[in-house]
TrEMBL record:
It comes from the Bacteria. Keywords: ATP-binding, Nucleotide-binding, Transport. CDD domains: ABC_MalK_N. Residues 9-239 form the ABC transporter domain. This is Sn-glycerol-3-phosphate ABC transporter ATP-binding protein UgpC. One of its GO terms (molecular function) is ATP binding. The gene is ugpC. It comes from Mesorhizobium opportunistum.
Length: 365
């Protein structure tokens, strides 16, 4: 993505240390006005810590934070022009939904008419008008989270921060609220920064994803770019369910062509697009289960024989596990073409859809 002019949120050389422990390491991130960006990574990667730094809930060690062009590095959270939705609903149990929505506005001293107008707007957008006189104990988990989002919405701010807001909900509710949050963003066009460890949430919601590990952004790009061209083995393995297949072996040059070689495997790489100049040596071959086919004839650039070890029916499709070069390998097939355990099959794929990684550094080759 090209450099962003007048970003809505700009994080410059941000670091956070707890004593000798470095939690965030010299992070730089510009977020465009109206962009939906997701901070994605495993537990402990620093994504929620970064969100809390943007919110002003944590003091940073170095760097600067700008929101709408204003340096807010040392501003109080209430002065940053943000609305935040937490993992916990954090609703006042003794108050009605309407009182929960209006509490912050009443404390801020807004006029009654303005408060009523904002509550009516938020309730309409989130479809919670019938719930305004109920208390949280009379609401479902999804309804409570809508109210929590509404409490941020009534603040009428430019930037919304979401800290794993759906993780306490069951799978069905998560799926429903994902759609609602996406529709909310389309309607409001506000800047939204969303933290999750759920890759499905990240892929479906984000304009761009920042994949984090160890307090460092590993890759920042559009979801499909990250999925199809991960910059390193960590990113490749983190996105995708099931994860990308990895086969350890060697990269070899023969004549004018490059080959990936492992036990009983000799894969010509053809027109594979290398990142930079390749070198012969230990490498890892990665390919996603849905980019592999079973028993599909001779039309694939590369094919080899294998035996099925485990079959996992998953409803609309089936996951087939086998071994390639004595290493675990999965293939996603349609449920109508499910092989049997121990069946001999032909595995076919196009190496152009693969990803090659340096065995030592994990970086994309």
């Amino acid at each position: 993505m090209a450099e962003i002019e007048n970003p809505s949120v700009s994080i410059q050389n941000l670091s956070l240390n707890y004593g000798a422990v470095s939690v965030l390491q010299t992070l730089n991130l510009d977020i465009a006005d109206g962009e939906f960006i997701v901070l994605l990574g495993p537990s402990g990667c620093g994504k929620s810590t970064l969100l809390n730094c943007i919110a002003g809930l944590l003091d940073i060690s170095k760097g600067r934070i700008f929101i709408k062009g204003k340096n807010v590095t040392w501003e109080e959270p209430k002065d940053r022009g943000i609305g935040m939705v937490f993992q916990s609903y954090a609703l006042y149990p003794q108050m009605t939904v309407e009182k929960n929505l209006s509490f912050g506005l009443r404390v801020a001293g807004l006029a009654r008419g303005e408060i009523a107008k904002r509550i009516a707007r938020a309730a309409e957008i989130l479809q919670i008008e019938p719930l305004l006189q109920r208390k949280p104990s009379a609401l479902s988990g999804g309804q409570r989270q809508r109210v929590a989002i509404g409490r941020a919405l009534v603040r009428d701010v430019d930037v919304f921060l979401f800290d794993e807001p759906l993780s306490n909900l069951d799978a069905k509710l998560r799926s429903e609220l994902r759609v609602e949050i996406k529709l909310l963003h389309r309607r409001l066009q506000n800047t939204m920064i969303y933290v999750t460890h759920d890759q499905i949430e990240a892929m479906t919601l984000a304009d761009r994803i920042a994949v984090m590990k160890g307090g460092v952004i590993q890759q920042l790009d559009a979801p499909q770019t990250i999925y199809n061209r991960p910059v390193n083995r960590f990113v490749a393995g983190f996105l995708g369910s099931p994860a990308m297949n990895f086969v350890e072996g060697r990269l070899e040059k023969r004549g004018d062509g490059w080959f990936f070689v492992a036990e009983d495997l000799n894969i010509p790489l053809g027109t594979y697009q290398f990142d930079g100049q390749p070198e012969a040596g230990p490498a890892v071959f990665g390919i996603r289960p849905e980019h592999v086919s079973l028993n599909s004839g001779t039309g694939w650039p590369f094919s080899t024989a294998a035996n099925v070890e485990v079959v996992e029916p998953m409803g609309s499709d089936t996951l087939v596990w086998l071994k390639l070069a004595e290493q675990k390998f999965s293939v996603r097939v349609t449920s109508e073409r499910t092989p049997k355990n121990d069946e001999a099959v032909t595995v076919g794929f196009d190496p152009m859809r693969a990803s090659l990684f340096n065995a030592e550094t994990g970086s994309r080759i």
